[in-house]
Amino acid sequence: MSNKLRWLKISGPLLAVVLFFLTINSFFRENKNLLVEKNVWQEKAMALEDSYRQLQEENRELQHILDQGRPGLIITALQFEPVVFHTPNRLAYQLSITVANRSSGAIPAGSGEMFFALRPPGADAFHRTSWQRFQLPPFQPGEEKTLPLTGELPASFREELLMVISLNRQPGVAKVEIQLPEARPVDVTQ
After folding, report:
1. Are the CB atoms for 159 and 118 separated by under 8 Å?
2. Mind giving me the DSSP string for 126-160?
3. Class of domain 73-179
4. How confident is the model over 43-64, as pLDDT tens digits?
């Protein structure tokens, strides 16, 4: 019996030492893996920071080019109200555009045009066009105004409407494409 106890007395501490070294080894291995992963993520973060700086620089360059381009009236917002058919073939529209003077000088009263192009649903080419002229008030440097625009044009239900707004002799242009609503059922009372 004393041989068995002696063997246990020797193997117990030896097993504890081996388990201790295995545990320490696994900690070092995990630490090494975490350091490698940390380095990979740091490289990715640095690459993303570099690309972010490059995009910011390109954005500044493009903004500088745009700002130095043709200063003048710019359309900053377009608010389109729901369209309504007064008769089956007449579309009434209401919209407002916000126009800002980005130049350093005053701009006298002028005009602009709205160009309308209509096409059947799913068609590639526009088959009918129309346009309307509107007046622009004078603008002081840095001034911003909201202009309401209303009107009617010939259109059919479910057509696709492309509208382009251009300010004459100014850099501002806006474009919007709209799917016109379907015909509403008419309620007939007897």
Report:
1. yes
2. --EEEEEEEEE--B-TT-EEEEEEEEEEE--TT-E
3. mainly beta
4. 999 999 999 999 998 888 877 6
